[in-house]
């Protein structure tokens, strides 16, 4: 930037500061005192500033300003629309109960829910959600999801009867009825280390059954024989505050799991209780993007889980991982003296679903979308 004198040549600050003399500090001080009382100095300063602005390229200044405004708007927009994080337990405890809860269980109230809607318009809705996500973020890494949504009808209709997810099938995922513990080693070990904590909170809850047939917060499920009840902490991606307040340590544990599905309709966490003589009808889960984890809390003899025609037994304090998009059933053939079969169930991400895909699926299948 060039400083141009607008009046007659005179000694100014810049000249004095660059004068190689021993009296420079003294002269500068005298000049500053004199200038501070001079209107001419103020006039020269303002004129010099105006001249400096004129020397700049106005188009460049406007362009930079516009880019800065767009960048600030983009950061605000992305930050506001970012998929929501897993709700901390403190905010849950302080919040009001979620809407649509009946007996502590979140029933779907929307006819357009992608988790429950089995209609021809579902694929179009999913594709619209994918496009909206890609516009806000990126198409990068969306190949399998795009392929799955565009050809969802063909995938679901052509699947063998042993594996047929009811809502969404992600292609090119390795399929097997059961998974080893190493599939999600960190979360499995964390759940097993907290076995006694979860069991203790369950036993406190279960004492209420001596006072009434179905205590508040429990859900009765349809079965051809026996009784199957569940106590949800997270139901289809939505926390059940009243239930979580009764199991605070178990709910906090969910926040420590690295692969727990907590932000879309395919994520659940609950205590599942089968009474003796109960048989669960064979059925398919909604998707193959998750692994269902059962931590055995009470596992009497005569209880089995059958997935894809392969039977397995639960063990207390141990996790059993399986893909519930395979045809599966469970039963308890023990006697009344054996007591109920109890597991803590939580949905984890399939290990072969990439991080970018998880974020997109959270957006596409967000609760209420």
Give a verbal description of the structure.
The protein is of the alpha+beta class. It has a domain at 181-353: Jelly Rolls. Helices cover 38% and strands 17% of the residues. The chain is built from 13 helices and 14 strands. The chain has helices spanning 13-17, 24-36, 39-55, 58-81, 89-94, 122-136, 143-150, 152-158, 185-193, 195-206, 241-246, 248-256, 355-364, and strands spanning 101-102, 105-106, 178-179, 218-221, 228-235, 238-239, 269-274, 278-279, 290-298, 303-307, 310-312, 319-322, 328-332, 341-349. The strands form three sheets. Strands 3, 4, 5, 6, 7, 9, 12 and 14 form an eight-stranded antiparallel beta sheet that branches. The chain has a four-stranded antiparallel beta sheet with strand order 8-13-10-11, with no helix packed on it. Helix 6 packs antiparallel against helix 7 (143-150) and helix 6 (122-136) crosses helix 13 (355-364). 32% of the residues are buried.
List keywords for this structure.
14 strands, elongated, 8-stranded antiparallel sheet, disordered N terminus, alpha+beta, 4-stranded antiparallel sheet, Jelly Rolls, 13 helices, 369 residues
What separation lies between the terminal Cα atoms?
Answer: 56 Å
Helix content: 25-40%
What is the number of helices? 13
CATH superfamily of the domain at 181-353: B-lactam Antibiotic, Isopenicillin N Synthase, Chain
Mean pLDDT: 80
Oligomer class? single chain
Name of the level-1 CATH class of the domain at 181-353: Mainly Beta
Question: What is the percentage of strand-forming residues?
Answer: 15-25%
- How would you spell out the order of helices and strands? HHHHHEEHHHEHHEEEHHEEEEEEEEH
Structural class: alpha+beta
**Would you count the extended β strands for me?**
14
CATH topology of the domain at 181-353: the name is Jelly Rolls
